[in-house]
Amino acid sequence: MRDTGSHLAESPAQAPKPALVGTPTEFTAALRALRSWSGLTYRQLEAKATAHTDSLPASTIATTLGRTTLPRERFVVAFTRACGLAEEDVRQWLEARRRIAVGEPAPAVDELEPTGDDGDGPDSGASVPSRRPLWRRAVGLALAATTGAAGALAIGGLLDSSKSPTAPGAMPVAGLRILAVGSWALIHPARTPGLCLTEGRDRTGQYETAVAAQRLCSKAVLPHVFLEPVGADIVQIQWHHPKYSIGCLTVLLNGAGRDLLEPREDCTDENRAQQFRIEPLGPQAPTHFRIRPVITDECLSLRGQDVKEGTEVVQGRCSGAADQDFLIELIPPPQAPAASLPTAATVPHHSSSVPTSEHDGRPEPGR
């Protein structure tokens, strides 16, 4: 059941339950299903956790849900509360985690306590027995999706399809087996696959904050790139930084940085300047894509069609030129820091001014 104190709207679908999951992989798949059920973005979950006096950085959520290892208890508590679960439901998730950690088997369906058909099931904190096989099938689909970083998470059986008609499905981007909850990726210009889209600078010097550019992949250690679906074939391109949290690439529509892409801290699913349509270039090039900003329907390309390291990524007229051809490589989650959940004091959020870049002393993007 949802925690009425969380001020979240009631969902017509029942929240996923962890009673039948038996492995760390199944447990993290169930957490991903819970996040989809909640309908909250990583930023919103971070804010909900803060309201509960928990520390749950958005970057930690993305990293943890991208793994198949058992998350720590602190994460489970903060995450399930942020999703809107009441304390009794949080306790059930902790009990399932403890059972998996010590190697106890999951209970059989007929071992679960019946809730009856008198309508009291949802208030008891346990699923109606007849729904258990459906949950098991859904977890099985999710497991099939998480066997590799390129899997597609199928959780539709857990969610009410009327809740979010525009939500991405099991394969939210045609031709790219991205997870429904998002995937870590490297984006390469097809002409120069040894280069990656990452943080760079406007070489004209007219725009001083960080922008998207191509650099040697060996130098593009940070930020980590995360693609989060926000609609059919549409994603946010997020930059995750262990120090500065998350910035969403945003098309600049005017001013000195016009047509450049800048990471902004104000990530929202509704900002069309932060949405990009991923289009396959065809069956002859299965890993090649055009990337089109939704707000203008133009195409991303390299400024001046340059192949040099440091060339800025810009938007412009879709011409079919070679510099508008990108390779998208889905990769495993980055290695997490030793601390499972950094405190708010150790993970500063983006601000509009003070922090400076570790690269050259200029202000960090959107901070």
UniProtKB/TrEMBL annotation:
Biased composition (Basic and acidic residues): 357-367
Name of protein: XRE family transcriptional regulator
Organism listed in the record: Streptomyces ardesiacus
Biased amino acid composition, Acidic residues: 110-121
Superkingdom of the organism of origin: Bacteria
Region spans: Disordered: 1-20, 105-130, 333-367
